[in-house]
Amino acid sequence: MTFQSVTNEIAAALLDVERKIEEARRALEKLLDKKEQLASTLNDYRDPVASPRPLTQRGAWFH
Length: 63
Fold this sequence. Notes:
The chain has 63 residues and is mainly α. The chain has one helix at residues 3-46. The protein contains one helix and no strands. Keywords: Coiled coil.
């Protein structure tokens, strides 16, 4: 292999890695958004005013 072909292979590999990192970043952002949504929902269930379900004697939600 020539120096130029090796350089091209390395450049192509780096571009592939960069693309995969960007895909992973977008996936992580989606997961963080979902985490925030779930945390908000959980807070709604923990707040007796926001969620009017009756409590058991031990304070757990009765389903």
